[in-house]
Write a structure and sequence with these properties.
The complex is a heterotrimer of chains A (398), B (300) and C (101). Chain A has 13 helices and 16 strands. In chain A, helix 3 packs parallel to helix 5. Chain B has a single domain, classed as Thiamin diphosphate (ThDP)-binding fold, Pyr/PP domains (Rossmann fold), CATH 3.40.50.970. Helices cover 38% and strands 15% of the residues of chain B. The radius of gyration of chain B is 19 Å and the shape is globular. A two-stranded antiparallel ribbon of chain C has the order 3-6. Chain C is elongated, with a radius of gyration of 18 Å. Chain C is an alpha+beta fold and 101 residues long. The chains are: A alpha/beta (398), B alpha/beta (300), C alpha+beta (101). The interface between B and C is large, with 42 and 43 residues. The structure holds thiamine diphosphate (TPP), iron/sulfur cluster (SF4) (3 copies) and magnesium ion (MG). One iron/sulfur cluster binds next to helix 3 of chain C.
Chain lengths: 398, 300, 101
């Protein structure tokens, strides 16, 4: 029997780690992640959760401990944000390279300077090439369900990849919502104990990560990571169906299409901006405007095929990024464009850099994006990338 | 099978065929350590000479489970391994972190400090070749004063290493570690006894092993054990243990000359007798202090 | 996957054959005979040998094995560092220039 709890996104992540029976939890605080590891400490102290809780001295060590623990054959969990995540960078590559299914909650927060603790995707976007699965959530329920699903998929013997479940700072991390929390037995029935085939074992000693030459097999191991991502894209959807059957709640697919199938103007975005966008779409639809939303949930593996199907028919597509790749444009924009470029149906695309450092993305902000896209659809000349709600006009350097 | 009693345990957990240089003291250190720990040991090794020495894929010289890890995370890695074993109730395994002096005294000191402060049951060994050897002889904070390395060159202005060697054992003592010791590959039985003591500790332990490197120190490879012996006999590398704060210093009748020790190695050959004289003073000063620590802590 | 076997060099044909995690356990005894590195060869004079085991103890390459009551050199792996010769208490080991064919 599940229970309904009114809890924050952070506490939801804590509950998920307990329900998934994480066995080793190296923890380090950072705003706005801290309450996740505090809650886990409380669970462990009360005896509800049987985990080895390691008060590491840094996030870098947290990830290192997760990797070695996972290679010893146990389930691990940690959580971080912003500076903690980017401090882990080297070990994120290591986690994927070593094929450890470490699961982590990341609270998407801006990077200093100046200090800023509010929502921004730069932290995780700058980790996109580390080999991690990256899922972006837009509700607390989704945080819980995604964490369970990630353990289920990532621990499969042909996948064995780490996964990062992302929540927007404060907007999700500190906002309480009603969450349907399954009971332990329900989760246990869905998620068996982690027992990897290959592990550090004195009875069958193996050397892990031994020097490999360019001639063999380094490149092949990198290909295998790509291959596992391809499998994971399929497996996430398959296991989501099993999840729905078991828990009675859909998880959906790698993207969510919201009134977009018949829309001419589609905005692509992620996380909580997508929640705001849904309301805007509803009200614009009421006004008879032809708009829809595509929410990307899985940024890695990237849902190229799904996006081609979901966006090909549009007259114009906008992409709203909560981060920016300096020297270019929003990373989501780049990737969506890339997905469509080799497709026979290729609508014009506009990139919006919005909500940087937690700047509000209100309904009116989103409405402005749709207004702009409509003009592009009508054939008006447009600028490919725009910074939205910038104080002062953008300057084009010619 | 030994007809006659061999000086050390016979089992080899480090196979021949590793790729350490001729006469590498780091190999003695590993071979003896594994003779002490036995096969129920998991070893974690960061970037260092020993990251390469086990061999090129698919080779390995190890007969125990072995994990390569990043340069600075040895102590975090063994913390994770211990936690995982604890999570599954597995108790009879020695968890061993094995890092160079650079990976310990420089880039890995933060993780090590964290592990020791937490009281993690794991053994950490620093094999000390007194520089970053894997990357080609750059100075570390464990490089002794006076030494040439590729980043502390003698040149015209005599820019050799000016700062004294960082003392890791004392840093461990300051953490209140239950067991820490120095060991020297020239005294394998003593080394093995210390590793065995460390294994029995219900908490963190740290052993600093003196492991001469012919390649980086610039001496012929057959001299490794001779140089190692001289370092201790000359009191440059005293052998001592600190058990729960109580010091025990191993005393030797035999003495060796610091100057002779240094002149045997290319890395010190630029030093004048005057410079060696002042280095000798600091050696004696530290050794006397150690004896005082011993007296003080044994009395308590 | 089949675990790589200790005494057998794994015979991988393509990326599909290699283990998912980069692991191995093929012993360097078979996989990496380092005897070819040698310039000088340690030669023991068994008449002088007092069978003390010091050479066995002091070899950084574990390239001396103890058979019954005496040392036997694994020339397949001995790198010729000369430590055994230098440390032998009864001067029973000579380092001779390797004659390579
Ligand atoms: C983060 C990082 N920085 C630098 C390096 C390059 N690096 C590899 S080994 C090494 C030196 C190792 O020195 P030490 O720990 O003393 O071991 P040794 O090689 O002397 O045995 C360095 C600088 C690295 N692998 N990782
Ligand atoms: S460089 Fe020095 S420490 Fe490294 S393998 Fe060679 S002899 Fe050993
Ligand atoms: S060290 Fe010399 S005397 Fe001792 S066993 Fe070896 S060869 Fe014989
Ligand atoms: S020469 Fe060196 S490598 Fe060869 S047996 Fe003697 S000590 Fe070992
Ligand atoms: Mg070193």
């Amino acid at each position: 029997m599940s229970t309904k709890k009114v809890i924050s996104g952070n506490y939801t992540a804590s509950y998920a780690s307990m329900l998934c029976r994480a066995e080793v939890v190296p923890a380090y605080p950072i705003t706005p992640q801290t309450t996740i590891v505090e809650k886990i400490a409380e669970f462990v102290a009360s005896g509800q959760m049987k985990a080895q809780y390691i008060n590491v001295e840094s996030e870098h060590s947290a990830m290192a401990a997760c990797i070695s623990a996972a290679l010893t054959g146990v389930r691990t969990f940690t959580a971080t944000s912003a500076h903690g995540l980017v401090l882990m960078h080297e070990m994120l590559h290591w986690a994927a390279g070593a094929r450890t299914p470490v699961i982590m909650a990341n609270i998407n927060r801006a990077l200093a300077p100046p200090w800023n603790v509010w929502a921004d995707h730069t932290d995780s976007m700058s980790q996109r090439d580390t080999g991690w699965i990256q899922i972006y959530c837009s509700s607390n329920q989704e945080v819980l369900d995604t964490l369970i699903l990630c353990y289920k998929v990532c621990e499969q013997p042909d996948i064995m990849l780490p996964a990062m479940v992302n929540l927007d700072a404060f907007i999700l991390s500190h906002t309480s919502e009603v969450v349907d929390v399954p009971d332990q037995k329900e989760v246990d029935d869905f998620l068996p104990q982690f027992n990897p085939e290959i592990k550090l074992d004195v009875d069958e000693p193996l050397s892990f990560g031994t020097l490999a030459f360019p001639s063999s097999w380094y490149m092949e191991w990198r290909y295998k990571i790509q291959h596992a991502h391809d499998l994971a894209a399929k497996r996430l959807v398959e296991e989501a169906k099993a999840f729905e059957k078991h828990f009675g709640r859909p998880w959906g697919g790698l993207i969510e299409e919201y009134r977009s199938k018949d829309a001419e103007i589609i905005l692509v975005t992620m996380s909580t901006i997508a929640s705001t966008t849904k309301d805007v779409v509803d009200s614009l639809r009421d006004q008879g405007r032809d708009v829809g939303l595509v929410r990307i949930k899985s940024f890695r593996p990237f849902p190229t095929k799904d996006l081609r199907e979901a966006l090909g028919h549009a007259k114009v597509v906008g992409v709203a990024d909560r981060s920016h790749t300096f020297g270019n444009e929003g990373p989501l924009f780049t990737e969506v464009k890339g997905a469509l470029y080799n497709h026979d149906r290729r609508p014009p695309l506009v990139g919006f850099t919005v909500g940087i450092g937690g700047r509000d993305v209100l309904g009116s902000t989103i409405e402005g994006l749709y207004d702009h896209l409509e003009k592009v659809a009508d054939g008006e000349a447009y600028k490919e990338v725009r910074w939205i709600d910038l104080i002062g006009d953008e300057e084009e350097v010619v | 099978m030994a007809g006659k009693k061999l000086p050390l345990p016979e089992e080899e957990l480090m196979d021949p065929g590793h790729v350490g240089c001729l006469g590498c003291g780091g190999c003695h250190a590993m071979r003896y350590t594994l003779k002490a720990t036995g096969p129920r040991t998991i070893i974690s090794i960061p970037a260092c000479c020993w990251a390469v020495m086990p061999g090129v894929y698919p080779n390995t010289c190890f007969n125990i489970p072995h994990i390569n890890t990043a340069f600075e995370v040895t102590a975090a890695s063994i913390s994770g391994i211990r936690a995982a074993l604890d999570a599954r109730g597995i108790e009879d395994i020695t968890v061993l972190g094995w890092a160079g002096d650079g990976g310990t005294a420089d880039i890995g000191i933060q993780a090590l400090s964290g592990m020791v402060e937490r009281g993690t049951k794991a053994m950490y060994i620093m094999y000390d070749n007194e520089a970053y050897m894997n990357t080609g002889i750059q100075r570390s904070s464990s490089t002794p004063i006076g030494a040439w390395t590729t980043t502390t060159q003698v040149g015209k202005v005599r820019d050799y290493k000016r700062a004294p060697k960082k003392n890791m054992v004392e840093i461990m003592v300051a953490h209140g570690i239950p067991y820490t010791a120095t060991a020297n590959i020239a005294w394998p039985k003593d080394l093995i006894a210390k590793v065995k003591k460390a294994m029995a500790v219900d908490g963190p332990s740290f052993i600093h092993i003196f492991a001469p490197c012919p390649t980086g120190w610039r001496y012929p490879p057959d001299r490794t054990l001779e140089i190692a012996r001289m370092a201790t006999h000359a009191k440059i590398f005293p052998l001592y243990e600190v058990e729960n704060g109580v010091y025990t210093v191993k005393k030797f009748k035999k003495e060796a000359s610091i100057s002779e020790y240094m002149m045997m190695q290319g890395r010190f050959r630029h030093l004048t007798q005057e410079e060696i004289g002042s280095i000798s003073e600091s050696v004696v000063r530290w050794y006397d202090k150690l004896l005082k620590f011993e007296l003080m802590t044994q009395e308590e | 996957m089949d675990r790589p076997r200790k005494d057998e060099r794994p015979d991988y044909k393509t990326w599909k054959d290699i283990p998912l995690t980069p692991v191995c356990n093929f012993t360097t005894i078979k996989g990496n005979p380092t005897g070819g590195w040698r310039t000088f060869r340690p030669i023991v004079d068994m008449d002088k040998c007092i069978k003390c085991g010091i050479c066995w103890q002091d070899c950084p390459d574990a390239a001396i094995v103890w058979e019954e009551d005496h040392p036997v050199w694994l020339y397949s792996h001995c790198k010729g560092c000369g430590i055994c010769a230098r440390e032998c208490p009864s001067d029973a080991i000579e380092m001779e220039l390797e004659v390579k064919i």
